[in-house]
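Model it.
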Amino acid sequence: MDRLTSNQLRFVEGIEEGKSLIDAYISAGYKESPASYSGASRLLRNVKILAELDDRLFTRKRTAQQRFGRMQDGSTNVYINILKREPGENIQLLALQQKVASDVFDRTGHKPPEEVKHTGSMELTLIDVLRQGRAKKEGDNDSS
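Modeled.
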């Protein structure tokens, strides 16, 4: 496929920046006239320009997905670290980390884990369940 002209490329960049069709058309170096609107519309229907806009959109979308994926991985690690903490550690910091992690989960379209209480009380928590499961598993391995 042929490459875009410099004016076409500037037009694509203007559209990508959020400019209106006519502003992108004029800032790309095309002459302002009563026919500018139809010229901008014609450019937007150009197959090469549409392909370039599609490629740029795909690249931006992939980059955003990767960024949110890394953020979600980080949020998952925050939850894991919160569950590993012992009672009495900095409760305010843990609560703030959980709030931020929950927000990231929400923004990436995922349901955050159920709320983790940081009271330090003797209630049965998820970490207790995990520890009991690990102890049982180690006991099963010892008896083999």
